[in-house]
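Reopening this one. Same input as before:
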Amino acid sequence: MNYSLIIIDADKKNKEFISGAWLQNCVGTTLDKAVERARNTEKTNSFMINVGVINFIGETHPHYIINKKRIDNQIIHDYTN
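Same output, byte for byte:
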């Protein structure tokens, strides 16, 4: 499967829909691996950013994404160790 990561700027409806800047695509991976990459990106940035996983949008350059359904909010892992 393919997923996209975005740096979350805003959320709506109990964080079900998110908006923010496109960060990168995760191509040919599982949702768990995309979530792990998102959490590791947050950790690398000293938790100064929040990264969400959305369905693949096929972008190759940064721009602002508005109100996409967040698909990683049901997967909870502890990557802070």
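So the earlier flakiness isn't reproducible anymore. For the record, Confidence is low (pLDDT under 50) at residues 77-81.
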